[in-house]
Each structure stands twice: as structure tokens, then as C-alpha cells.
Amino acid sequence: MGVEIAVSGLTKQFGSQLIWDDVTLTLPAGEISVLLGPSGTGKSVFLKTLVGLIRPEKGSILIEGQDIVRLRGDDLYEIRKLFGVLFQDGALFGSMTLFDNVAFPLREHTRKSEKEVAAIVHEKMDLVGLTGAEKKLPGEISGGMRKRAGLARALVLDPEILLIDEPDSGLDPVRTSYINQLFVDLNAQIDATFLIVTHDINTARTVPDNIGLLYHKHLAMFGPREMLLSSEEPVVRQFLNAQTVGPIGMSEEKDAEELAAESGQELPPLPPIPLQLPTSDRTPRRAERGAGVWCRDNGITPPPGSFASTTAGVPGVRHGVGA
Q1: Residue 202: how many CA atoms within 13 Å on its side-chain side?
Q2: Beta carbons of 231 and 221 less than 8 angstroms apart
Q3: CA-to-CA distance for 217 and 41, rounded, in angstroms?
Q4: Contact 152, 184 (CB under 8 A)
Q5: 7 Cβ partners below 8 Å, 6+ apart?
Q6: Buried b (16+ CB within 10 A) or exposed e, 101-122
Q7: How far, in Å, are 39, 119, 168, 201, 308 from residue 242 at the CA level?
């Protein structure tokens, strides 16, 4: 089962350049969270900080009662064993076969026999749909297959936390859909805590249990998917609905003149909230909430047409899991 990550007051800067300040959020154990934000807002830096590769200037990151920010040496090495990381480009060794790439963490960090290593590698490669590709080199396969090989490698030590950096980068929409489905299915199977950094709005709207948005050097909002998809907060509304009207411009923030020109414009309506992506076999995930439940419990009327495939009975609520 995944573990909770409690981030409090996290601040990071490089020299005089502030990346983000006073970031506070809790990634719930076993749930899928997505982190969004305009380019250059420090999303990848945040992932590296969570795993202890980058030290923040202030704040804490508590995992199982230990603050990663203050750990050093063997203690940090041990807590890192909870993590699996899928880097943006897969980060595979070009001269190694996929089998050897996936086996690398096992050979480096465990004393398992080659027979045991082979069994685990085959299991994880089967899990991500790469059975039969073990002898291929990274240069011989597609970008989507490289992503899946990187994911298999991230899974071999049975992590309780998976950090995933822009899995849709370089992938076409079909392969992005496949890898999104894989994340949902994996979460159901291994119950790990997922944090996915992405720019893909469809991924953010349909995959996670929770969404966070970094903007203008701070965390604009973090919470359940339906909370952000129904939010009227200008930055959240603009970004999650890919709209041009709002405070975000081509260079991150619009200037006063641009904002003044937009004043009085009628905002486009919020689009319907889609159903969350289910597992392939429709088996409920432990963290899955019923569609519309958060809105109902918080007295929020979702945009018209939300949860359109729900059954009759309670408007906007899918009957079954969490309803």
C-alpha cells in the first residue's frame, strides 16, 4: 500500500531566483495525484525535491514520520527505497537491452540471484505490456515503449510511491491514452501513491483523484479532482479548461494592460466534468470516489452535462463506488 507524503512550507530557489514558495499539500496514501502548471514553474524540481535529489531552502517533507529534507547518508538512501521514478525521457541506458535496463536496480540494490532477478523483470515487463521485447535496445523501439520500459524499471523494487515526470511528452494522443490507462490499472493493482507531472489537460481531467496547480511561484490550489474542475478561481479555471481569458499569458503572467483589455469579457462556461477513467476491467480502485460525490457533499452544482453517463436516481452521481 502507498504511503502519505505531507509537504509543509516548502520553498526552493536557485541563487536569487525563487522557484516556488511556501508549498503545502498532502498526497494521500494510495491515490493518484496530478501536478500541473505553466512551463517553467518548477514541477520537475518539485519531484526531485520530494525524492531528496534537491534540497529546499525551507520546509519539510514527511514520509512515515521522517523528514526527507533533514535526512542524510544511509537514512536518506533507505527512505528512497520507497520511491520509483519514471523520468521524462525514460532515462534508459542506450547500450543495454530492455531486460538489463529493467534489471539494473535489482542488481545494484539487492542481492537477489539472477534467477530471481529474471522472474521479477519478466513480471514487471508483462505488467506494462512489454513481454517479448526483452532483448531489444532502447534505440530499436518507439517512444511509448521506452516510457513503458522506464515504468517497468521504476516498479522492480515494488515502490510505495511512484513519481512520474511528463509521461505524455513526445507521445501521440493514442499512446497517451494507453499509458494513462496503464497508470490507473497499476494503481488498482499495487495501491501505490502516484504523483504525475503533466501538461496534458485530458490526463488531468480524467485520471487523478487529486489535482494541484503551481503558478506564479506558489501552489494555487490542491485538492480532489472535482473541486478543481468546478472551481471559479481564475488561474485554475483558465488552465484546466485551456482558455485564453484569465491571468495566464504567453509569458506566464499577463500584464496590467492585457488584463484591463479583458475586463468585462464574459468568461466561457465551464465544460462538463467527465467521468474518471475506470480500470480496464472496471474493478473499483480503493481510492476511487463516486462521480459527483465531492460536488454533492460540498454543495457545489457541477457544470451542466457533467457525469453524463450516470444512471437515473441521484442527478450527477454514478451509482456504485463511493456513491
Answers
A1: 12
A2: yes
A3: 7
A4: no
A5: 23, 24, 25, 26, 27, 50, 59, 60, 61, 62
A6: bbbbbbeeeeeeeeeebeebbb
A7: 14, 44, 17, 8, 21
Q: Is 146:138 a contact under the CB 8 Å cutoff?
A: yes
- The DSSP element (H or E) to which 220 belongs, if any, is strand 218-224
Tens-place pLDDT, residues 236-272: 988 888 877 777 765 666 655 665 566 666 777 889 9
Cell of 223: 485538492
CA–CA gap between residue 238 and residue 244 (Å, rounded): 7
Tell me, what DSSP letter sits at residue 209? S
Q: CATH number for the 5-225 domain, one of 3.30.450.20, 3.40.50.300, 3.50.30.10, 1.20.272.10?
A: 3.40.50.300
Cell of 252: 506566464
Would you kindly state where each structural domain of the chain is located, as residue ranges?
A: 5-225, 229-262
Please tell me the pTM assigned to this model. Answer: 0.88
